[in-house]
Amino acid sequence: MRAVISHMIMVHELPFSFVEYELFNIVMQSASPYYERIGRTATTKDCWSTYELEKKRVQELLNLVDKISITTDIWTSNQNIQYMVITAHFMDMDSKLQKRVINFVEVLPPHTGTCVCDAIYKCLQGWGIEEKVWTITVDNASYNESAVRLLHDSLSFHTTLPLEDGLSEIKSIIENVRDSVKWNVTFAMLSCALDFKQVFPRYQLRDPNYKCLPSEDDWQRVEEICSLLVHFNEVTKIISGSEYPTANSFLPELYSIKEILGQKSKSVEPWMKNMGQRMQHKFDKYWGSSNLLLSIAAALDPRNKMTFIQFVFPVIYSEKEATTQICIVHDAFFKPINGK
Length: 340
Fold this sequence. Notes:
- By secondary structure, the chain is α+β, with helices and mostly antiparallel strands.
- Among the domains are: 2-62, no CATH class; 65-161, Nucleotidyltransferase, domain 5 (2-Layer Sandwich), CATH 3.30.420.
- It contains 14 helices and 4 strands.
């Protein structure tokens, strides 16, 4: 019963003194006359014991797998304290996708690539999984590029970064809205802010210290940015699905992103054109050479076959490179292996 109570305390973020509430004890003793009152000190110890037990179970799961993908995110609380959450994603012995938060730690400013790299690497070492890391996904903060580079040198794994690099073109606008709302998910923040744009001027009237009211021109740009980021949001939902096969959808969705970026790169608005070009450059940089597994997965989809590869590669690659990459995928299917 004490173990269950400790879970309740932590899951619902209740105070340790909850177990001393009079009505709680009346309920417990009504349910079982054998229930004995416990104090906050004993409950604190029970919570630590439960934590250690759960940590041991997670460690046993991690010990059984060979490849682990890591995602990280840094966000700021309402108290202006910055935290990093590190999540491990892996397939268990029953081929089921598992997700576990393996660290939640305060990251003291200023944030640098070295600081973030050290925090992640210390976490991986603590769990003994530094040699099992398969991929790592980070948010779009500028220091993450150097952090990933340092991790690459330490762990020898390949990594990709998000496609939101071009958002630096409207950095001042995003910071104005973010300072008002205190969110760090760019699309969710901006789209929600749009719904409540009329509140911002009223907030300024009530708070003379509020100095970052977005202008009408800012709001117009925010609307255009949301019309772009909504595509990234939808693609992320599609390829992140864990209850259905997704590998065959990666290439079609990447193609749609490439096509959108191509359109934005030719925008008549200079700021949108610059942003689109920066994002397209980042796309081309991290896409690199053909990811053969994604291409094979797409071609094996009976709705696509090799016809789809021949259609999208000229968009993703230059004309010469597209021909080469199409041949690579074709040979993977048809080229004889060991003369057979």
